Amino acid sequence: FFAAxxxxxxxxxxxxxxxxxxxxxxxxxxxxxxxxSHRPPxxxxxxxxQRRPTTRDRKRRRNRTLRRTGPQRSVCSQSFVLVCAVATFxxxxxFLWLSEMTAMMRKxxxxxxxxxxxxxxxxxxxxxxxxxxxxxxxxxLRKRHNERKAAREHNESGVRAASIDxxxxxxxxxxxxxxxxxxxxxxxxxxxxxxAAPTDPFHLSELRKGQCPWSGDDLIEWLPxxxxxxxxxxxxxxxxxxxxxxxxxHSKVAVFYEHLSKAGGTSFCTMAKANMPREEIPKYYCMPSxxxxxxxxxxxxxxxxxxxxxxxxxxxxxxxxxSNEWEPFNRDFLELQMMSDLDxxxxxxxxxxxxxxxxxxxxxxxxxxxxxxxxxxxxxxxxKPSIEEFLQRRGRRANRWKILxxxxxxxxxxxxxxxxxxxxxxxxxxxxxMDAERHLKSGAKSAxxxxxxxxxxKEQVWRQSFSVAVTLxxxxxxxxxxxLFDEHHEPLQHLLGWTNFEKSHVVNIGKVQNxxxxxxxxxxxxxxxxxxxxxxFVLYYWxxxxxxxxxxxxxxxx
Length: 558
Description:
Blueprint: H1 2-5, H2 12-38, H3 55-67, H4 70-117, E1 121-122, E2 128-129, H5 141-155, H6 164-176, H7 179-187, H8 204-207, H9 230-237, E3 252-258, H10 265-275, H11 303-311, E4 321-324, E5 352-360, H12 363-377, H13 387-400, H14 417-422, H15 431-434, H16 436-439, H17 447-456, H18 459-474, E6 478-481, H19 482-485, H20 490-496, H21 517-520, H22 523-532, H23 534-552
Parallel strand pairs: 3-4, 3-5, 5-6
Antiparallel strand pairs: 1-2
C-alpha cells in the first residue's frame, strides 16, 4: 500500500517506521483484548481480594458473571479491535497522502522555477531538473521526471566527473604507491622501479600548457562534480552596486575561507579588502572577533553560532566573509553549503549559505616559509634555530596542541599540514617529525630514518585521516594553488566577482622572500621531507589538476 501511494515521498523511510509502529500498536491492542476475553470471569477483576471470600463476595461475583458472560465479552473485544485496525489504516493513509502531495508540490515548484529560466540545471548527485513548457501538462510527475532525465542522459555528452567514493579510492591508490614511483609520476623524477616512462596521473604537463587532455565521454576518476553556481550568483548580486543597494530577494551568501598558514592567506584577505566594502570583512586578518578575543577562533564554533554571527548579531550581520587559520576545518560547516537545486526553492529563509574557498601550496615550500617567518623573523631569541630544529620543536608542540589552545600557532610547522587541516585534526604527529633533527641531517639516510619513514607510511596510520581530507576538500567551491594563481585569476573572478588582483601576493611582515625549497634545502633533506609530506603532495597536485581542468576544459565538462 505504501509503495503504491508514496514512492516519491521525501520522508518515505520515516513514514515506513510510523506505519510499522502503528501496526505494532494495533497488534498489542488485539493481544490485550483477546487475553481479557479468554480469562475466566473470576480473574477479570483488577484487584483480586487476597482474604478468604465471604458469602457476600460470592454473591457479588455471581451477579457480575451473569452480567458479563463470556460470549458477549468476546464479541465486544472483536469489535473494538476491528475499529482500532480501521482507524489505524485511515490515519496512516491520510498521513501518506499528505506527504505525497507535499513532495509533489515541492517538485512542481522546483520544476517551474527551472522552466522559467529556460535551461536545465544539475544538482551535485547528477539529477537533472528543468524542461520545456510541456512539463505543465497534466501527466504523472514521476513518469515525466524519469523520461526527461533518461532523455537528457542519452543525449548529453562530455567529460564526466567522478563520485566522491571514486575520488577517494583513486587518491588512496596514489598514496599507497612507493614514494619514489609516486614522485616520478607527479614530478617527472627518474625511478628505477618503473619499467616504462612514468605516467602523470593528473595530466598536469598538458594542463599547464593550456590544453585539455580529454574529449568525448571520458570519466575523470579524480575530478569532483562542479559546485552549484547559484550561490555564487547570489554572492555577486549582493556586491554593492553603484547606488549601494542589495538584491535582498534570496538567502544571504557569505565566504568561508579556510586559511592554511603560510599558504597565501594574507594575500587572500588583502584581495578581499580590495574588492569588498570594509564593513563586510572582519578587521583582524578577516578573522571574526569577540569581546576579549581579537581572533575568536571561528574553527572552534558550532554551526549554529556561525549562522548567528552572519544573521542575528547586529554588529556582525553585515559581514560576508570569515577566515579560520588556527583550528582544523569543522566539517559541520559544510551543511551550510548549497548542495542541490532543492535549496533554490527556499528563497530568503533568513539563513545563510556559505561558499567554501581555500588556498594551498607546495608542502615543502610552505614549511620553508613557516620556518623563515616563525623561526627567524618572528623569533625574539638571539640564536635562531636551524630548519631541522624548528621542525622538531614545532612537531612536539603540535603533539600537545588542543582546540582553543593558547599556543595558537602550534601546528604551523606540522608535516602533512593540509591533510591534518581538512581531516578535522585527525592525523597524528609521527616520530619522523618528533625527532626531525636526527632524521634530517645531511647525507645518506640512516637505517633509523628509513625505518621511521616506513612506519609513517603504514596505511593504518593515515588511511582514515586522508580519506576524510579528500572527501571534505572535494566539496569546496574553490581550492586555489598559489603557484598557479598569479597567472590564472579567472576561477576566483567567476566565483566571487572580484576583479582587483594587484595585491595578489603580499606578506604581513617584512618583504616577499624566495621560498623555493629545491634551491634552498640540501637535496637529502628535501628527499626526506618529500617522503614525510607524501599525503600533502597528493592533495597539492590533485588540487592543481582540478583548478586547471575546470579552467581549460570548461567547454567539454558536463
